[in-house]
Structures are given as C-alpha cells and as structure tokens.
Amino acid sequence: MHFGPHLLLAALEGLVTSAVLALTALGLSLVFGVMRVVNVAHGEFFMLGAVLAWAVSTAISGHPAIGFVAALVIAPLLVGLVALVAERLVLRRLNYNPEGTIVATIGMLYIIQQLALTFYGPEARPVEPPFSYRILLPWFGYSGYKLSVVAASAILLVITWLVLTRTKIGLIMRATQYDRETAQAFGIPVERVYAGVFAVGAMLAAIAAVLIVPISQAHYLMGQDPLLLSFIVVIIGGLGSLRGTVVAAILIGLSDGIISMFFSPTLAKIIATLVVAMVLVFRPQGLFGATSR
Amino acid sequence: MRDASPAKIYALHIGVIALLFALNFILPDYHQGLFARIMALAVFAMGYNLLFGYGGLLSLGHAMFFSAGLYGAGLTVYHLGWGVPEAFVVGIACGALLALVIGLLALRTSGVAFMIVTMMFAQVFYLLILYFAAWTGGDQGLVIQQASRVVAIGGASFDLTDPTVRYMIALALFSIILLVTLATVRSRFGRVLVAIRENEERTKMLGYDTVANKLAAVVASGAICAASGAAYALLFGYVGSSFASIQYSILPLLWVLLGGAATTLGPLIGTLFMYYVTDITSGFTSAYLLIVGVALILLVLFFPKGVLGSIRERWLGWLP
User: Which of its termini does chain B have fewer beta carbons within 10 Å around, N or C?
Assistant: First the structure.
C-alpha cells in the first residue's frame, strides 16, 4: 500500500479508538465533574462490561445479532448495578472525600479484576459481531461494523449532551456539580444524584466495552489501557467539560492510531503520558477547559 | 508525644531493633528469608510514610523511586561490573536525582492532581524500562550473578547470598532508616512538614518556605525508597519491570495505611502483616489481589488511622 491509503487506514482505526474512548472518558468525566471523585476503578467497569457481554452473547443461541443486542442491554445494566452497590457501600460512607475515594476505588479495581480472573479466566475470548458487512474502498476493504461503532458512539454522545443541557435531570446534575450544598438547600436529593451519576458513568464505560468487544476480545486485564487513556482525555479536555472530552478523545484516538501504526506503540504511550503529565503540571485546567472556580 | 521523655521513645525503637536481631537466631530458614525481604521493603514503606504520613502528600508513583534504586544499583553491577557498595550509592543517587526532578514538576500541583501526575510519571518510567529492554531486560528482568554480589571489606569478604549476611544487612539498613526517620520527625524539619500537612496556608503565613520544605521531603522520601530498591536488587539478585508497575506504587500506601500513617513503626507493622497475610492465604488461593483490594477498602472505611495510629489515639499518646 502507498502512504496515502496507509494513513487513511490508520486514521479509520484511530477514529474507532476515539469513539470508544470518548464514551469511556465521558463516564469518568461525569463522575469527576459532578461528584469530584477520581474513579480509579473505571477501567474495571469497562472490562466488566466486555466480560459480561461475552457471557450474555454465548448464553443466547441463534443469530449473533440477537446475542449482541441482548448483551448491549443487559451488560451495562448489570455494571450499573455493581456501581450502584459500590457507591452505596463504600463511597457514600466515605462522604466522597477525594483521597479516601481514590484509595477505595483502587481497592475496587483489585477486587473486580481478581474476581474476573477467578470466574472468567485468563483467556481472551471473542464476541461475534452482529453483522459482517465489508465496505469496499478502492484500496482496501473496511469492516462495516467498525464504522457503525463510530456512529453508535456519536449518537450516544449527542443523547448525553441533550440530557445534560435540555432536560430537568441535566439541570439537577449541573446544579449539584456547581454547588452541592446550595443544591441540597433547594431540595435536590444530592445523594441520589450522586448514586445515579456514578452508575451512569460506569454504564457508559460498559456500553463502550460492549461496542468494542467484537473487534478486540474480552480479557480480564483489558481495563488498564482505557483507564489511562480516559484520564489523559479528561485531563487534556478539561475536567468536567463535555465538549473538551469529545475533542480530546478524537485528538488522542487519532494520534494514537497514527503514531502506533508508524512507530512503536510503547513509544506512543510514553509520549502521550508525558505530554499529559506536563499539561497537568503547567496548565491544570486542561487545554480546552475554562479556569476552575 | 509532647509529654514523652526521649529516653522512652529511643528505648522502644532500640528494643524493636534488638528483637529483630534476636529473631535471626530463632526463626526457621524460610521465615528468616521472609523477614529479610520484609525489612528491605519496610524501608520502602518508611520512605513513603515520610512524604504521605508526615508531609500529607499522597503520591501514586513511588514505584519509580524504588525502581530507580533497583535499576540504578542492579544495572551498574550487571553492565559495568561495579562493586556492591558503589552500586548501592549509585542507586540512592539515581532515586534522589529523579525525586528532585519529579518534585520540582509535581509540586506545582496539589491534591488529586498531584496523585495523578505522580502516577503518570511513574507510568512513563515503567514504559521506559520496557522500551529500553535491550539494557533493562524488559519484563523478563535481569538476574545478578552470585559472583558479583560478594563484598570485600578489609580482609573479610561477605557473600550477599548467605542468609545470615543478607538478614544482617537488611536489618542494618532498616535500623539506620528507622533511626533517621525518628530523628527527622522529631526535628524542626519534621514539625514543619506536619504543620504543612495540617494547614499549608497558615504555615506559609508563619514565614516558612513550604515549597522548599515539601521538595526536601520528596527528595528525602525518594532517596530512602531508592535505598530500599538498591538493597533489594543487591540482596536478592533480581531486577524486573514489575517492581516499577503501578502495583508497587499502591503497596507502600497500603502498608503505611495499615500500620498507621505518621507513626515511625507503622510501616514495619503494615509490611509485616500484609506480607504474612498474602503468604498464608496464597496457600489456599491465588486471589492475592482480592485480599489487597478488600484490605484497602476496609482500612479506609473503618481504620483510617491504621494499627499504630489507633493505638496511639486510645492508649499510648506518646508514640512518635
């Protein structure tokens, strides 16, 4: 292949990464923005979504599309339930103290990871894509499923944005984010908002995982990279800014796809991590975020 | 702490060291080896405790200081063929230098951002070790041969693979760092650190240079953790990238939380306890990380002050 088509392929792969990353990072960003909780276990909710998707789709016989759709509904709901229980049992008791919650979510990370290893095993297992249509470009054929992942992610992002800006639920969430105590004084059930946001954040990660699992297989360690990349996206995009998160996800996804196609993936990760650490040191509000209150 | 006579405090610490010395002759072979490892790693926890317990700075990247010492010492022996004492010094110097650079950058942030920044720098360090696998051995690691782990001082030569020599060197390092920590936290510098932890703005108003004090704490903490890493490489003859992974940044936090943050003997108790819990449970199950996870959550929920912190609160107010 010539350089041009090669770059196009890298860009397409990067776009798929961006789409999944935007959803995962959005979940992390919502939880941090509203609750001020850094959820280190976010990557494990992603992994749990993928593993449950495998479990659901293998339990259902028939056309792969039926199993996939069932997984897309059931897996995020179960993950949301796990997150809700974790929030109730642990985070609420810590009164959402930033340092305490980081230590506690590190604990959750280890627990979920170990349970997945014990019950799911160390193997990587695939989920069949719901359809296997290939789009033929002049230079190479490209999986139609991958492009549909991008579309699905875009639709979900728009829905989230509409909910946040156009509905009463979104208004309540933004009020809680802006000033927790005043919101409570106005009769907003802050604790229920927190529980809901934590569950929705985990569900977004789980949906992203179900979408990606037909492309990359389900594995008990698959949560580590998305966690780090989501942190990177959220920091570059500005903590708690939806538009910044999406822009940063596209930026990181594309550059990750392109750099790792032409250079070593380890080098790509080193550069990305170092750049982000420097952004956090010298521009803590992120590249697109407004200055913090 | 204010009412305690220094004699009582020093007697307690000398007593602990004497007990560890006596254990060398009592413990069976297997536990003697385990204790040597625990003492070397307790130094890591003490270095972490200086910054987290006393200075109030929660770092999630201390594996990089530990592994800077580990690789600084291990690679000079492996590639340059240097002697053990020189390699040990190189290891500490690597850790101190790295801590200085990281401190200058990371201390521009605070709170949650400080945790994430230190975690990311540690991740970069870890990836660099993998990237330069030609020299570091990557995730396979390197084994340092027995022949290059013999120290000749004067006429006598010490073989670091001998269990008693290994135990005594680990104990010596542990004792030195324990007494240094004790002296540090009782000094003016230690009190300024606690003041910064409690209220940084007020400390600044009182005319203390908080940034310089915090930087000094990061460098001291990094150097102690590097000493632990260097000793670990030389005593046990193995360097590997797993020691630089995020897990080794979490473990000292766990040990310190368990034993009691801002107590001088807490890191030893935490390390000892966790090591034996994982050692005993690994007989029944391979789910060692599950125990770490559950321990972290239970600690932060019900025992935020740790073992010694709770004892100090209830009964022994004079514990340093």
Answer: N
